[in-house]
Amino acid sequence: MALKRIVLRDFVIVSELELDLESGFSVLTGETGAGKSILIDALQLVTGARADTGVIREGAARTDVSAEFDNAPGLQAVLDDAGFEAGDTLLLRRTVDTQGKSRAWVNGSPATAQQLRTIGEQLLDIHGQHAWQSLTRPEAVRGQPDLHVRLYAESVKDLKAFLEGAQADRTEAGGDQGMPAYESLITFDTPVETGKLFSLARSDYEFTGGAHGNTAYTGVLWDKAMKRPVTAAGLLKPGVALSALDGLLCTAVNAEKKKRDPQAETISLNPKDASGWSCPHAADTPIVLAPSTEPGKAGGLVFLVGPYQVGPYAEGSYQVPVPQAAIRSLLAPAYADEFAGAPVMPKG
């Protein structure tokens, strides 16, 4: 997928610009303040970024941005789902007037900003001057549009905050010299879906210098019918606290550690263990649904234990399954039927 052409009219300080790009690698150079970032802002607008009247050139009634891309087979399903005709090229267009009204088109057909975002995710990966950023989500999330919008907004907000932090660090240090390029990656794993529930894990990797980067995990639980998030505690009967799972989690953590190293010391919930490590508490550990041997069901819960939580950093992270059979008596009646079978965990 390649950008072929971008047209700006009354955008920021640009009265009119038409830029045709040849196939292959293109580089736009110029000193600070020459306006290179204006093109990036225009691309973000035409791929669904929030519209703001501040992008309209002073004295103009509206701004108008269009971008033409080579089409690609991977976009066909996205365009078909949205009812847009596909051709040899893909043309996106966006206007914003002084009243803040935004209009959008895909291949000449009216579109929403969300549809532009959905398509734009397949087209662009923007790398900042001081940080490399990436956002990856599985295709299945698109089947839950309310969740899709929520995850996209949260992820973009976090990536923007990381980029601003990278720029602030450079400013404080007085320049780039001696500082590594920062990196931020947000990845959503393959989801697990039942009749009522949709679940997936989010991992956030950040590198800001040092021996290695850091990874944090978040669990996403979504009630498809109610179109709202479900807390881990919400899966349990009223009055049952997540602490009821602490013992099960600790046993499961030790089992996973033994799989990697049969000589691994057994750890406990006691923070003063001789090993120097202790089991995490369920209430403090992200949870997702475990795939099951029975289609359409969850085989249990998977606790996402990050690096350096239950052992040295070199051990890495753990995905710790707790079978549904062990927690069935604790499950809320509204969700108990979503669980059956045994957990199926990826090998390796």
- Can you say what the CATH homologous superfamily of the domain at 1-124 is? P-loop containing nucleotide triphosphate hydrolases
Strand content: 25-35%
Molecular shape: globular
- Individual helix count: 7
Main CATH class of the domain at 1-124? Alpha Beta
In total, how many beta strands?
15
Task: Give the CATH architecture of the domain at 1-124.
Answer: 3-Layer(aba) Sandwich
Helical amount among residues, as a percent range? 10-25%
Largest sheet: 6 strands, antiparallel
Q: In words, what does this structure look like?
A:
Helices cover 22% and strands 28% of the residues. By secondary structure, it is an alpha+beta fold. The chain has a domain at 1-124: P-loop containing nucleotide triphosphate hydrolases (Rossmann fold).
Write a concise synopsis of the structure shown.
By secondary structure, the chain is of the alpha+beta class. 22% of the residues lie in helices and 28% in strands.
List key phrases describing it:
six-stranded antiparallel sheet; Rossmann fold; globular; 15 strands; single chain; alpha+beta
Q: Would you spell out the secondary-structure blueprint of this structure?
A:
Elements: E1 3-11, E2 14-20, H1 36-46, E3 62-70, H2 76-82, E4 89-97, E5 102-106, E6 109-111, H3 113-120, E7 131-136, H4 145-173, E8 182-188, E9 192-193, E10 197-207, E11 214-223, E12 228-229, H5 246-260, E13 287-291, E14 298-305, E15 318-323, H6 324-327, H7 333-336
Parallel strand pairs: 7-8
Antiparallel strand pairs: 1-2, 1-3, 3-4, 4-5, 5-6, 8-10, 9-10, 10-11, 11-12, 13-14, 14-15
